[in-house]
Amino acid sequence: MSRESFRRTLRGKGPVSFKTHPPKKHEGEILHVAKSPVVTMAPTTPIYDAIRIMIKEGFRRIPIANPGTRTLEGIVTAPDVINYLGGGEKFRIIERKFGGNLFKAINEPVKIIMTKKVVSVKTSSKISEAIKLMKEKNIGGLPVVDDENRVRAIITERDVANMFADRISRVKVEELMSRKVVTALPKTTIFEAVKTMTKRGFRRLPITSENKVVGIITAMDILRFFGSGKVFKHLQSRTIIQVLNTPVIEIATKKVVTINPEADIGQAAKMMRKENIGALPVVENGRLIGIITERDFFKKIE
Could you give the residue range(s) of every CATH 3.10.580.10 domain in the chain? Predict the structure, then answer.
């Protein structure tokens, strides 16, 4: 079955449900939605190379696998990297081991920051199982492994949201959006933004001026900043704090796609799919009143 044929079977009315799908004995329906083949990295991959791979591929998370057997050993995400480079508990590794020298820290193997206890699903799993796990564990993606724990694919909340973009509807954005939006100011430094994102578990922060959206900063934006040739060129002579004191507006996305609170969530899902983004600030009369993300769609998926 093709992915498009699989999507067509989902269209209808009411909440989306997978409860009536029969179990599969071998490869399950999850492989019709998950990305395969999947990009993986070895545990010995330097963190700087990991950053460049994530930027090139446009992935927020990459499984870490044994290069010979492809068995799953860990996973590294964009938040893991920015946690390490300036704001979370992993940042202490740089201060303690490298005296704040980012150039040395960025060339360490990715295994020092990867998550070792990986939540994954089997190739025989149903999509409902993956959704349930992402909800329960509050994570945005799951490696898909076979019975030998070899990485076969990866499924993310974006894959799920894209799949349901033509299926979820008849609910207004304001009913699912988060109203208490944590924001940054144009003068907020990257260091401050990273600390906020790490502490609160956010992957993005709208940037506001007088409650009007003037930009949005994401974990991938920060990753691109650290992976840029300009930053890398100066790392040998600058400390990490100098790098992190860059105002966040300098690396943020300025042309922000927004949505009205009265819009249908189906429209929001289609907009995210078209723009390949994970969230939309919700704006009414020019003012920010909320934000809706890919994860919010899970509230309408049973």
Answer: 3-163, 173-300
Q: What is the pTM of this model?
A: 0.83
Output DSSP code: residue 31.
G
H runs (alpha helix) in the chain: 3-8, 47-57, 78-86, 91-98, 102-105, 127-137, 157-163, 173-176, 190-200, 219-227, 229-234, 240-244, 265-275
The H or E element that residue 208 is part of is: strand 204-209
Task: Give the Cα separation of 51 and 106 in Å (integer).
Answer: 9
CATH topology of domain 173-300: CBS-domain (3.10.580)
Task: Say how far apart CA 268 and CA 263 lie, in whole Å.
Answer: 7
Joined tokens for residue 140: 């945005």
**Topology annotation, domain 3-163:** CBS-domain (3.10.580)
Q: Which tokens in the block code for residue 26? A: 């071998």
DSSP state of 183: -
How does pLDDT run across 113-140, given as a tens digit for each residue? 999 999 999 999 999 999 999 999 989 9
